[in-house]
Amino acid sequence: MSGNTAADFRNPSIIRKLGIEALTKELGAVGMAYFIRQFDRGEGNYTIEREQLLADVTMDDIERYLEK
């Protein structure tokens, strides 16, 4: 969308599209992705989930896995 074209800035999908386009133009695709990741809060609780997932994993298990 050119600078002369009016955009409906009340429409979140249009703002998102224009923002991604502007960031990609200025930062490149990789830079845009890194910029966006700064604002992703994610979901869940990584610490609790990690403890649950690894509760039964021992150092011996890890060593055996790495040897494969």
Can you offer a commentary on this structure?
The chain is an all-alpha fold and 68 residues long. It has one domain (12-67). The chain has helices spanning 12-37, 46-53, 59-67. The radius of gyration is 21 Å and the shape is elongated. It starts with 11 loop residues before the first helix and ends with a helix. The mean pLDDT is 88.
Please name the defining characteristics of this protein.
3 helices; single chain; 68 residues; mainly alpha
Residues in β-strands, percent: under 5%
Measured distance between first and last alpha carbons: 53 Å
So how many helices? 3
Helical fraction equals 55-70%
Task: Give the count of structural domains.
Answer: 1
Mean pLDDT: 88
Number of strands: 0
Poorly predicted sequence stretches spanning 5 or more consecutive residues: none
